[in-house]
Amino acid sequence: MTGGQRRVLVVEDELTIAESVAARLRAEGFVVDLAHDGPSAVDKARELRPDLVVLDVMLPGFDGLEVCRRIQAERPVPVLMLTARGDETDLLVGLAVGADDYLTKPFSIRELAARVHALLRRVERVSAGSRIVLGELRIDLTERRVHRGDAEAHLTPTEYDLLVFLAERPRAVQARERLLNEVCGWHAGASSRTVDSHVKALRRKLGADLIRTVHGVGYALEVPR
Questions:
Q1: How many H-runs (helices) and E-runs (strands) does the chain carry?
Q2: CA–CA gap between residue 40 and residue 52 (Å, rounded)
Q3: For residue 48, what is the enclosing H or E element?
Q4: Whether the predicted model's global pTM rises above the 0.85 cut
Q5: Distance from C-alpha of 29 to C-alpha of 32, rounded to nearest angstrom
């Protein structure tokens, strides 16, 4: 953050798109930095510590999926992924490596700005001084840190928000559509498989027994022992 302003790193090799996105976000009050290939994106994310990354999938050097893996391994940061691909499998791969939301090209610059604001609002939703403790699962809502037993789990912002939503309602089954709307903020037409992808990541990081699938409905958090 610079002087109270949020910093956004825009990673896009098509210069016209990069400049258009940057201009709109600067008009919205953000500090914006640009990178045009995979290696420089990772370097700038490490150096500048942006509050959010807008990340194109197709990049020179190495692609946006690898960029996302590397920056999330160093420090969790919200990522809005841009893709020209219409294949849902490709989009789910992006979510699996740590992206929080995605837009398919061509997209509206106004919608992109709205998604950026929405992602940052979600990250800022914390309850000062409070924790959720369910058995050996501990969630620090102030620092946005999660432990199971002695091990800390490094979650993406969306994974964290999804876990908190379920943990605030232990054992209660939550429909995929509700999770999509309440946690992710995506439009009703978005695929519920995006929720499945984030649940899969939570199970990998916190244990397969943590979240129960209710077939045809959604998911429930089991109270860990």
A1: 8, 12
A2: 16
A3: helix 38-48
A4: no
A5: 9
